[in-house]
Request: fold
Amino acid sequence: MKSLVLRLVGPIGLGIALLAAAPDVAPAAERLAAENAWVPWAPPAIRVHAAYMTIVNRGDEDQAVVGAESPDYEHVALHVSSIRQGMSEMQAVDRIPVRARTQIALEPGGTHMMLINPKRVYAVDDRIRVVLRLQSGEKVETSAVVRRRGQGNEPAAPHHGHHR
Reply:
């Protein structure tokens, strides 16, 4: 009987010891956050919108956003805009890397999210839910405010140009 008790306590004790020794792992939302998220207001006839924000990695490990979704749109895609030979180009990307203890700005004229086919008409000051999918499989939620261009800290660069 004593050996049976030792065999049962051994694995349990080992499990407790491993849990006690394991470093605290903060939830994804504490390590990586999306701040100051906004979507420029667009007339109802416009079916493709953009989302901008600052993604902050407070953790000690590199992260990557590998996708996004929104219950308010049919599809969300990650994109980057650039100027090449005087033309503005926009290209889909598979991931947005965010190195440990840094941040990346999603802004007009650069990296951003395309929100495709809104499920309703949005007005200035409405909120749009965006969920970032990380390479780890974790998700980080944010709420983007709809606002008119020029009401925030976006650069003067245009968003849309020639698409390839």
Summary: The CA atoms of residues 47 and 117 lie 5 Å apart. DSSP finds two helices and eleven strands in the chain. The helical segments are 2-21, 28-31.
